[in-house]
């Protein structure tokens, strides 16, 4: 477990310890040497660290021949491509799963939003998290917006209507043409709303994670599945075979 002393790391350690078919063999945190891990002792490493460390961690794990399940967000197209190319050069059967969200309800909400997006003129995303979260918009929201944008492009839809001329900073981030708004508020854990609108109607898809325990079924599924999926897999929906 990388990031074992963090909020998510501690919860993952407890979940792995409680799983009869899994064994926790190492707990690493800031300052520990990821390169010291070997494939003789470790089958899968789970990374819940910070955006500034996770990419280097994954490359070290690939070099060691260790599968990786990564919940740390902050990944870019370039950093994902770098990992994909590294896996290609390494050959073999090492798998890396990058999942912006391990909550089953969150993954389903993303999928439903992408399915619905082609039928609505307008769509925006609101993500709501605790104030200790270091990146904004969240990886989940970016992943959701990218899937929505791809579905709209495939359907031949243009940009959503928006007459804004000034004050664009109040309109949220632009993720592939989809507006994404980030809220940081004490008392929240992880939440997302996707708002879709047509003349005379609105669809709201809302997902709430009230406790980090809600992510554990997805994390454990990722650990069990990544060993059977060589190369790079992005999104838990692909492990769930939701497309």
UniProtKB/TrEMBL annotation:
<feature type="binding site">
    <location>
        <begin position="3"/>
        <end position="8"/>
    </location>
    <ligand>
        <name>NAD(+)</name>
    </ligand>
</feature>
<keyword id="KW-0457">Lysine biosynthesis</keyword>
<dbReference type="InterPro" id="IPR022664">
    <property type="entry name" value="DapB_N_CS"/>
</dbReference>
<protein>
    <recommendedName>
        <fullName>4-hydroxy-tetrahydrodipicolinate reductase</fullName>
        <ecNumber>1.17.1.8</ecNumber>
    </recommendedName>
</protein>
<feature type="binding site">
    <location>
        <position position="130"/>
    </location>
    <ligand>
        <name>(S)-2,3,4,5-tetrahydrodipicolinate</name>
    </ligand>
</feature>
<feature type="binding site">
    <location>
        <begin position="71"/>
        <end position="73"/>
    </location>
    <ligand>
        <name>NAD(+)</name>
    </ligand>
</feature>
<dbReference type="Pfam" id="PF05173">
    <property type="entry name" value="DapB_C"/>
</dbReference>
<dbReference type="GO" id="GO:0019877">
    <property type="term" value="P:diaminopimelate biosynthetic process"/>
</dbReference>
<feature type="active site" description="Proton donor/acceptor">
    <location>
        <position position="129"/>
    </location>
</feature>
<dbReference type="GO" id="GO:0005829">
    <property type="term" value="C:cytosol"/>
</dbReference>
<dbReference type="InterPro" id="IPR022663">
    <property type="entry name" value="DapB_C"/>
</dbReference>
<keyword id="KW-0963">Cytoplasm</keyword>
<feature type="domain" description="Dihydrodipicolinate reductase N-terminal">
    <location>
        <begin position="2"/>
        <end position="102"/>
    </location>
</feature>
<keyword id="KW-0220">Diaminopimelate biosynthesis</keyword>
<comment type="pathway">
    <text>Amino-acid biosynthesis; L-lysine biosynthesis via DAP pathway; (S)-tetrahydrodipicolinate from L-aspartate: step 4/4.</text>
</comment>
<feature type="binding site">
    <location>
        <begin position="139"/>
        <end position="140"/>
    </location>
    <ligand>
        <name>(S)-2,3,4,5-tetrahydrodipicolinate</name>
    </ligand>
</feature>
<dbReference type="InterPro" id="IPR036291">
    <property type="entry name" value="NAD(P)-bd_dom_sf"/>
</dbReference>
<dbReference type="InterPro" id="IPR023940">
    <property type="entry name" value="DHDPR_bac"/>
</dbReference>
<feature type="binding site">
    <location>
        <begin position="99"/>
        <end position="102"/>
    </location>
    <ligand>
        <name>NAD(+)</name>
    </ligand>
</feature>
<feature type="domain" description="Dihydrodipicolinate reductase C-terminal">
    <location>
        <begin position="106"/>
        <end position="240"/>
    </location>
</feature>
<feature type="active site" description="Proton donor">
    <location>
        <position position="133"/>
    </location>
</feature>
<dbReference type="InterPro" id="IPR000846">
    <property type="entry name" value="DapB_N"/>
</dbReference>
<dbReference type="GO" id="GO:0050661">
    <property type="term" value="F:NADP binding"/>
</dbReference>
<comment type="similarity">
    <text>Belongs to the DapB family.</text>
</comment>
<comment type="subunit">
    <text>Homotetramer.</text>
</comment>
<keyword id="KW-0560">Oxidoreductase</keyword>
<comment type="function">
    <text>Catalyzes the conversion of 4-hydroxy-tetrahydrodipicolinate (HTPA) to tetrahydrodipicolinate.</text>
</comment>
<dbReference type="GO" id="GO:0009089">
    <property type="term" value="P:lysine biosynthetic process via diaminopimelate"/>
</dbReference>
<keyword id="KW-0521">NADP</keyword>
<keyword id="KW-0520">NAD</keyword>
<dbReference type="GO" id="GO:0016726">
    <property type="term" value="F:oxidoreductase activity, acting on CH or CH2 groups, NAD or NADP as acceptor"/>
</dbReference>
<dbReference type="GO" id="GO:0008839">
    <property type="term" value="F:4-hydroxy-tetrahydrodipicolinate reductase"/>
</dbReference>
<dbReference type="Pfam" id="PF01113">
    <property type="entry name" value="DapB_N"/>
</dbReference>
<dbReference type="GO" id="GO:0051287">
    <property type="term" value="F:NAD binding"/>
</dbReference>
<keyword id="KW-0028">Amino-acid biosynthesis</keyword>
């Amino acid at each position: 477990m990388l990031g074992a002393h963090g909020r998510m790391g501690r919860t993952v350690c407890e979940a792995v310890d409680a799983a009869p078919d899994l064994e926790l063999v190492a707990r690493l945190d800031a300052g520990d040497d990821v390169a010291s891990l070997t494939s003789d002792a470790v089958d899968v490493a789970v990374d819940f660290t910070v955006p500034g460390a996770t990419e280097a961690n994954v490359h070290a794990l690939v070099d060691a021949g260790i599968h990786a399940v990564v919940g740390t967000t902050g990944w870019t197209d370039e950093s994902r491509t770098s990992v994909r190319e590294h896996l290609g050069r390494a050959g073999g059967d090492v798998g890396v799963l990058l999942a912006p969200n391990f909550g089953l309800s969150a993954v389903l909400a993303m999928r439903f939003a992408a399915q619905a997006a082609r039928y609505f003129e307008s769509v925006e995303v609101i993500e709501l998290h605790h104030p200790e979260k270091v990146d904004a918009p969240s990886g989940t929201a970016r992943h959701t917006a990218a899937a929505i944008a791809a579905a709209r492009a495939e359907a031949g839809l243009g940009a959503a209507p928006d007459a804004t001329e000034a004050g664009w900073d109040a309109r949220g981030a632009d993720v592939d043409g989809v507006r994404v708004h980030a809220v940081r508020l004490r008392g929240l854990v992880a939440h997302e709303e996707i708002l879709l609108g047509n003349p005379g109607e609105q669809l709201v898809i809302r997902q709430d994670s009230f406790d980090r325990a809600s992510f554990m079924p997805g994390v454990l599924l990722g650990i069990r599945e990544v060993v059977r999926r060589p190369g790079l897999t992005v999104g838990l929906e692909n492990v769930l075979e939701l497309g």
